[in-house]
Amino acid sequence: MAIYITDAALQQALDLTMLHGQSKAAVLIGLSRSGVQTRLRIAARRGLTPTVEAPTTGAQPLHTPPSHEAALAGRVKSLETRLKAADRVTLDAEYVKRQIVGLRDDLASAEPPDWLVSPKKVADTDPGTPTLFASDWHWGEVVDPRQINGTNDFNLEIAHRRAKALITTSVDLLKHHMVRPNYPGIVFVLGGDMMSGDIHEELEISNEVPMMPTVLDLWGVLVWCISTLADEFGRVFVPCVTGNHGRATKKPRMKGRNHTSFDWLLYQFLAKRFENDKRVSFLISDGPDAYYKVHNHRYLLTHGDQFRGGDGMIGALGPITRGDHKKRSRNMQVGMGYDTLLMGHWHQLILLRKLIVNGSLKGYDEYADANNFSYEPAQQALWITHPQYGITFQMPVFVDRKPARPVDVSWVSIPT
Predict the structure, then answer these.
(1) CA 76 to chain centre
(2) Which residues is 77 bridged to in the sheet?
(3) What pLDDT, on the 0 to 100 scale, is given for residue 206?
């Protein structure tokens, strides 16, 4: 982002250069000589001229240092100018959240709600707190079944149907297939790549609708998802991180990653929609990771696009395991150790105690087929965190009810 230089700072560079030359002016302002030259060029374009005259014969030589007071005054003015410029860059994201979106709280530093960390009463027979992991929805993308031997089909109509199935199936599993379904609430994780995006030329051409209508359509669906979960479970905690597909830049960015992401903007508008609903709370990270606890169990949520590599034998598990090891080491050094790493990105459901990798709503696609990746149905992760035992029940939520093979209702059988 370009930093605006005030006329006062440009005038200072002009006057000090007129009095002392560019090299000495650079020292007084606290810039490099090329920085002073840049300010002189900008001043010329704005039509500014020096307000002092160059020293005449017999006057103080150019190399004579100015008084101590003058040097301090010039330094203070320079620091004030640079501080204002830094504040302008730092406050850009806050300005979007508070002035444009209208949010009152800083959602990047929000704490998990009390009911999630310290529930008032937990019976020994209560199962704990469920987490539903939603990521890699790729809203707006089209998967052509003719190009992948009919193994999958995806478009906006199917996406709507699968999103509804994700919520209704999760509610059914948690409420009708558990002995005592008493929950303090539910965690609804949004793990990024919620929309297809335009990061590749082929996506720009093949996506069903452009980016802006996609965001609006997805926003409405997620409002329904969160509202339904709040109605069913009473309270919803929504931790969020951005993915790589929602970015507005061609290449991924390390600085300002989230503030150029439609995922992040979508989350902010969702938080605005529910800001007066006491049942719903958000944690929207301004970085690539979100750190939170469910009871005594510590989670680190990331999208997973930082991890790269793999091969035909070990697949995605190699880079994922290496990435988890690096993150654990880094977090331990800053007192933010975690028990379980959560990520999406790989479109491959892996349910372990220390690592949970989510599947996708989109399912198998042309990219996976062309690279001979193993078939993966459209599914998302669901599990329960117990206050004493941590992660206990883990179950995939299949969002497409098409059976892959005839159903055998036998309890146990021996193939012949």
Answers:
(1) 38
(2) none
(3) 86
pTM score: 0.72
Q: What is the reported pLDDT for 31? A: 82
Query: What is the residue extent of each domain of the chain?
Result: 7-54+66-96, 108-398
Tokens of residue 191, six digits: 């793990």
Q: What kind of architecture, by CATH, is found in domain 108-398?
A: 4-Layer Sandwich (3.60)
Q: Quick: pLDDT tens for 346-395.
A: 999 999 989 999 999 999 999 999 988 889 999 999 999 999 999 999 99
Cα gap 218→241, rounded to integer Å: 16
